[in-house]
Amino acid sequence: MSTTAAGELGSAPQLLPPAGRPPAAGRRRPSPPVLLAGAVLVGLLLLLPLAFLILEAVQYGFSALRPLLFRSLTATLLWNTVSLTVVVTALCAVIGTVAAWFVERTELPGRRFWAVLVVVPVGIPDFVTSFGWKSIFPSLGGFGGATLVMTLAVYPLVYLPVAASLRNADPAQEEVARSLGLGRLRAFLRVTLPQIRVALLGGCLLVGLVMLAEYGAFEILGFRTFTTEIYTEFLSGFNAPAACALSLVLVVLSLFLLTGEGLARGRGRPSRTGALAARIPRPYRLGRSRLPVLAGFLALVGLALGVPVGAIVYWILHGGSSTLPSASIVSAAAHTVFYGIGAGLLATLAALPVAILSVRYPGRVSLILERSNYLVLAMPGLVIALALTYFTERYAAGFLYQSSTMLIVAYAIMFFPLALVAVRTSVAQAPASLEEVGRSLGRSRLEVLWRLTVPLAAPGLAAAFSLVFLEAVTELTATLVLIPTGAHTLATQFWSFQTNISYGQAAPYAGLMILIAAVPSYVLGRWFDRLPSRAIVSG
Amino acid sequence: MAQGTDRRRTRLVSRSCCYGLALALLGCLLASCGGSSSSSNTITLYNGQHEQTTDALVARFEKLTGITVKVRSDDEEVFASQINAEGSNSPADVLFTENSPPLEYLQEKGRLAPVARSTLARTPARYNSPTGHWVGVSSRVSVLVYNTALIPNSQLPTSIMQLADPKWKGKLALAPGETDFQPIVTSVARSYGDAAALRWLQGLKANAGSSHTYPDNETLVDQVNRGQVAIGIINQYYWYRERAQVGQSGVHSAIAHLAARDPGYVIDVSGAAVLKSSDHQAAGQKLLAFLVSAQGQQIIADTDSFEYPIASGVSTAEPETPLDKLQPNPINIAALGDGATAVALLQKAQLL
Q: Which residue, among B121, B152, B147, has the nearest Cα to B136 in the 3D structure?
């Protein structure tokens, strides 16, 4: 920590505004037009599904919608959806934060190993997790079953941003608090928690939005929510307009979530004390609590990973008559990976201007541009696919329709919010002062962006890519509509066997999906140990 | 000292990002170029039918005619919405469905082209589109499925109406979201009126409860076979597929027909149509003609779809009750329509 460039910069704080905060607070700088144009373009693309929903709902008419909307079933479904979302989000917040803290801040034996295993469940499709549980416990279902399965399937969405945030947060504050006599728990609650608050809230927001749009898992568990009802409308009445109108209710629910998260997030931003002087925190010793903590991790991973994987292995071994079409599984895997990589890159790239704009140039415009993008996560995949179908066929003569490009764009739209949360978090933590220095040395904005901001935010970009990749690998309903004719993904093949109760034939596809998902999770876990950003600031 | 490596690392990161992006974009371009070729000898089939059967049919057709068929499989109801959203640019040439309502729906929307008369003549007229816009290809019949350990044969209901009786509470399995269930609802409504049909549905809902309401018939049959629930209503082929799946030793269930002409005793027709927007009308019509030819029908009889072939006089060894021995409620295709009546009733009963 002695004579690095960062150390010298940090020792001249009077020249530099505090990190992570827009310099010259109070005076608002105009947003660079390139960034603004990029963000607006992304925003418009993401509003397409919403435009489609409104078009269809208007066409259906309120008088036709009223009997569908105002009946006791709606109340039941709303209650199911809302209560489940609240409970699962709360559980994920606790599990994700606790797990992240132990992995990042303690001398947990096998840290790296756990850091990977804890993330992998996010790559297991929710419908595979519920399939695993259901095939072992056929009577599982209802609120309890849905809570259990969904919590285990989505808690990594909290874990990932919180872990990234803990890594980047300045440990000095916590150490000061500890040295002033605060206990571990109180130091965590009063110092660390505020530091990771933005990441935690972002993660919770993702969980909430994902819960609103979840379909496959609830279908298997027989738990009815607003989204399963929307699919039922689609699938049994050719009633796309009615389904779209019902989807608008989901949009309203997600607006509540967004507003709530926005209010809770407030104006606070994470910052470091001594500008750039973050260090590797000294990990806490676990001492006697080592065994119980290890047992906790074992239980979490066992339930979230062991059960679905165990079920898959069981069905591969005992699946009955299954003639496995080996050629198709290889091609399905190749397609899956290709689409996933494309979607991950595209979404991450698209998230950059939006994130930078919202962090570095805060204002009403950038706020609206950022927040409106989250709405898309609560919309059922089928709606987004049909919206793209509608617009390309009606206004672009079917250009790229059912091509891999279109599918990748659809994935990028659907999972854009995941990329945005991850990118935003890490851009917020990258010190703005370094960019100012870059600018003062005569570099252009774009050059600074590319040479400084992007590498500084690299862990967040990697996390964004991985999250989108993982979700894209498991997507089903939009895939079926937009995939090039003749191509298959692992998810579509799994689903077509699973719905035929051909568990033995479905299982290898699920197994391969998990293996593929494990790769980015592993890379993600390992890469965190060698962050360029931390290397730069700590030397 | 660490500075140099840091800088190198930073550069490495941005450079590899660069290459990755370039590669991905190139890949996208290449892939989309490859995907959009469509020659006059290639048609696209939107397939809502059993995939293996369709694959077998298509393979034979390609061999016979030299026409390449690109197959997309999805839920037939999604296809109906999708074709509607695609409008006049739809890439689909032919749609093949498990049930008549999606075809009737698209016919009402004016999306289907008339089928060649010679093709329609292969199938008994009662199984074809009343307006000649699609041809019936195969059929299924609704039956009771029951767990043989839980219900003795002698206590089986003879009418679908009896299943609403409270004595079946906790024993009845229901998959109200299945398209196959709608013809039964329509049939009951036509026999007894909408009000009685609604009361009947409410009875079924109460008997099945939330624990025995299933998303699809495959799950329903499986749950009955495992003894999780006693009895349900399905189309016969689901049970045969379950039997093929679990093997004879794993079968703990059986199917039974309802009394002759009972409103729950309904024949469902699977059909195919050429889209009006298709640029390959002739090739599409050829595929339709093949589906109802003796060769096509024999493939349906031989594969494990367990549906009844209905055209060109082909019959099947399984299901055991031959098609001409069935005594269904004589409700016709036009009366089944696009299923709107059934859907409205199911929504009123809050089953949808």
A: B121
Structural domains in chain B, CATH included, are 42-138+268-319 (3.40.190.10), 140-266+341-348 (3.40.190.10)
CB neighbours (10 Å) of residue A86? 12
Q: What is the ipTM of this complex?
A: 0.78
* Per-residue pLDDT tens over the stretch B185-238: 999 999 999 999 999 999 999 999 888 888 888 889 989 999 999 999 999 999
Residues 180-209 of A with CB under 8 A from B: none
Compute the nearest-CA separation of A249 from chain B (Å): 17
Maximum pairwise Cα distance, chain A: 74
Residue A8 contacts B where some CB pair is shorter than 8 Å: no
**In this complex, which of B9, B36, B81 lies closest to A403 when CB atoms are compared?**
B36
For A53-271+287-538, CATH gives 1.10.3720.10
Q: Does B65 touch chain A (CB under 8 A)?
A: no
Closest CA to A533 of A429, A465, A455: A455
pTM of the model: 0.82
Query: B66-77, pLDDT tens digit by residue?
Result: 999 999 988 898
Judge whether B278 and B42 are in contact, CB under 8 Å.
Answer: no
In the predicted model, what is the mean pLDDT of chain B?
A: 87
Angle at which helices A364-372 and A326-360 cross, to 10°: 160
Give dist(CA B65, CA B282) in Å, integer: 12
pLDDT digits (tens, 9 = 90+) for B123-138: 999 999 999 999 999 9
DSSP letter string, A246-273: HHHHHHHHHHHHHHHHHHHH-S-----S
- Asked if B55 is an interface residue toward chain A (Cβ–Cβ < 8 A), one would say no
Minimal Cα distance from B22: which residue of A? A345
Give the single-character DSSP code of B1: -
Q: What angle in degrees, to the nearest 10, is found between the helix axes of A503-527 and A490-498?
A: 150
Please state the domain extents for chain A. 53-271+287-538
Q: Is the pLDDT of residue A38 over 60?
A: yes
Task: Decide if B349 contacts B198 (C-beta within 8 A).
Answer: yes
* Phi-psi sector, A30: left (phi>0), alpha (psi -120 to 50), beta: beta
Which of A229, A397, A408 is closest, CB to CB, to B89?
Answer: A397
